[in-house]
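[recover] target loaded
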């Protein structure tokens, strides 16, 4: 799950829909099963997996566009997030710039395409793919989030399957402290659109008895 920003719709039917970040290769508002084009902050879930447990994480492996919080609704499982605005501290060589403003931060893999940055080829194992200066910058800003492909130890979280719903909050106020979101301070950009594979975010069911609660705010 991810957020799309700086979106433009050219017709009332929803056709001709495109976003500057998090776009999904569709010409309409619905993504129709397509994934997010990087860079985009991802909220990832594997539900009812090993032993029936859920696994979830916030990933910056494909870059960053907006802060994201995942908070299990039952309160007994840990929250995870990337609460920082990495666009502010993004290195110049990774920036995606629109109208003079940095609107997203690419991963080093997307920017440079080398095996060392992409954890591929000869660097395709945890032993051979180490953190880089770029992934360390992401990790310092968002310690709970995936900063590169093999950043599992501090970035994957587990909850007993079937025991919780999950709140996914974009641009959360106070990081993992709760569900409140900051009010928008600028009307310079169009509203942020949540990508939900074409379904209504209010009615998405992750699993039977697991309801995702989505709170979306306008992109600042």
């Amino acid at each position: 799950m991810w957020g799309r920003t700086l979106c433009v719709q050219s017709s009332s039917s929803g056709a001709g829909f495109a976003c500057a970040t998090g776009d999904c290769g569709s010409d309409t508002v619905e993504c129709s099963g397509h994934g997010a084009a990087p860079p985009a902050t991802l909220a990832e879930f594997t539900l009812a997996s090993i032993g029936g447990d859920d696994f979830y994480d916030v990933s910056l492996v494909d870059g960053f566009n907006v802060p994201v919080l995942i908070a299990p609704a039952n309160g007994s499982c840990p929250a995870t997030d990337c609460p920082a605005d990495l666009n502010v501290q993004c290195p110049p060589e990774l920036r995606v710039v629109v109208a003079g403003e940095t609107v997203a931060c690419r991963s080093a893999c997307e920017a440079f395409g080398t095996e060392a940055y992409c954890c591929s080829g000869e660097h395709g194992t945890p032993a051979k793919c180490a953190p880089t200066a770029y992934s360390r910058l992401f990790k310092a800003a968002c310690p709970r989030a995936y900063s590169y492909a093999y950043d599992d130890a501090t970035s994957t979280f587990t909850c007993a399957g079937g025991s919780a719903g999950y709140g996914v909050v974009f641009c959360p106020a106070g990081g993992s402290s709760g569900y409140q979101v900051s009010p928008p301070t600028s009307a310079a950009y169009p509203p942020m659109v949540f990508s939900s594979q074409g379904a209504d975010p209010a009615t998405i069911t992750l699993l039977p008895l697991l309801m995702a609660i989505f709170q979306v705010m306008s992109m600042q």
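[recover] notes: The longest helix spans residues 133-141.
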